[in-house]
Amino acid sequence: MALQEKLDSFKKQQEKCQSMLSKSASSRATARTPAPLKFSSDTERLQHINSIRKAPVGAQMKRVIDLLFQTRQAFTPEQINDACYVNVNSNKDVFEGLRKNPKVNYDGKRFSYKAKHNVKNKDELLFLIQKFVEGIPIIDLKDAYPKVVDDLQEDIAFPNDPKIDLRNVDDDLKELFRSIELPRDMLDIEKDLLKNGMKPATNTAKRRAAAQMQGVSSKLKPKQKVKEFSKNAKLTNAHLPELFQKLKNS
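RE: above sequence
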């Protein structure tokens, strides 16, 4: 009888130990399981995407054109969606607007930025300017490649003619040149040229109208004070310094 009681007691202890081991294993498994990702943790990004796709067609097109302009790369509609969240494939108006936009090139698969003049660096820019003897408006060049504005200084880019030597200019002609005060506005300059029977090389009214259609500001640049340079200063207009620079007597 005593033996049976001991066996029953041992059996109960085994069952108790087994129960404790099972609970311990269950708690460890629960601790290792990562918490499921809640939808709320991604809500902000989804709301941002939704606001872009519900924006007006013009705003979505601008977002895409800015992407093409800044990267200068060709994108498929799927790549555009990944890069700026504009779903070109699902919005027919955006797709057709981009396809017909004068600043966008579409080859049937990819969209890319289309500048008026296909130049990619300063050397190609100089080569292009040499073709325009009467000058080329800066507005036609400012989107040619990133930082092209750093290579341009005036409103009109004119080529230098190496056949003309302007180093020995008569003093009277220099004085006459300095005494002529030109109007600030190119429109007024063009009017004066027409009055004197000369055809202007530029059409400022047409250029400004085109700039406004493309969202480019056509406001006049603030007039800068003429700087004086010392004799040791580096002259940027090295081909004609005596007409454009004043040197201090030292």
